[in-house]
Amino acid sequence: MGLSLSTETVGDRTVVRVGGEIDVYTAPKLREQLVELVNDGSYHLVVDMEGVDFLDSTGLGVLVGGLKRVRAHEGSLRLVCNQERILKIFRITGLTKVFPIHTSVEDAVQATD
């Protein structure tokens, strides 16, 4: 399975909807998308991972890299995920302390964290 990406603007946030698998083969595509958005001036990102079936360490690295990029511009990167198997990865790695994780795009867009 591959990776699908789409973006939309919701308020002052750019929502990146991700579907499929984020792994060593597909993560570069997500990295390129995040870099392009930041280079274009989108510093407040919401990554919607509801359609993600699999996430490996390469994918985690891309998300952390994206967070560093937006923070360099006083921005934010919020995740949307309520799938237990994906949330478990964030808990095990301690990344729940790094990323604000929301249960819906609406919550993430309205959050002030």
UniProtKB/TrEMBL annotation:
Q: Which domain of life is it from?
A: Bacteria
Membrane-crossing segments per the record: none
Q: STAS domain: which residues?
A: 3-112
Pfam families given for it?
Answer: STAS (PF01740)
User: Which InterPro entries does the record match to this protein?
Assistant: Anti-sigma_ant, STAS_dom, STAS_dom_sf
Q: Which family does it belong to?
A: Belongs to the anti-sigma-factor antagonist family.
| NCBIfam families xref list | ant_ant_sig
Full protein name: Anti-sigma factor antagonist
Task: List the source organism.
Answer: Streptomyces nondiastaticus
